[in-house]
Design goal:
With 143 residues, this protein is α+β, with helices and mostly antiparallel strands. It has 4 helices and 6 strands, in the order αββββαβαβα. Strand 5, helix 3 and strand 6 form a beta-alpha-beta unit.
């Protein structure tokens, strides 16, 4: 999960060997929830789920959350359980603007405090910022 253009699909393709389409223009690319084929990681079978991003160019965050919720509900009915969530955040976003703050707040409320131990917030796009700025932004993201 994460904002549109934060590298969710790129990460999933790299980690799983998938070949999902990656957005390169101004428009959001991932329009539906999509799952990778299961693969082994440290002896465990893993399936990664790619989602449309928040702050999408064609849908509201509420619509995106409803889509994710419907997908998770359907897969749960078939016996699949969510083990964790990776939330992608661009380190090149120099400020935590209103949209990102609302998304993090909504994300925390959605997950609940007790399940946050199964959430990993990943900062990426470090090559887009200087190393000094990246260290400063990284420290701020931990707070």
């Amino acid at each position: 999960m994460g904002p549109s253009g934060s590298g969710k699909t790129t990460f999933i393709n790299e980690a799983s060997g998938s070949d999902f389409a990656i957005g390169k223009g101004l428009e959001s690319c991932t329009s539906e929830v999509q799952a990778t084929n299961p693969f082994k990681l440290n002896g465990r079978e893993v399936t990664l789920i790619d989602t449309p991003g928040f702050d999408d160019t064609s849908r509201s965050d509420t619509d995106i959350l409803a889509m994710i919720g419907a997908y998770l509900s359907q897969t749960y009915e078939h016996g699949a359980k969510l083990a964790g969530i990776i939330y992608m955040h661009r380190i090149s976003d120099f400020r935590m603007g209103g949209t990102n703050k609302r998304n993090f707040k909504m994300f925390r409320e959605l997950c609940g405090e007790s399940t946050l131990r199964n959430v990993l917030i990943v900062t990426n796009m470090w090559s887009e910022v200087s190393s000094d700025l990246g260290e400063t932004e990284g420290e701020g993201a931990r707070e």
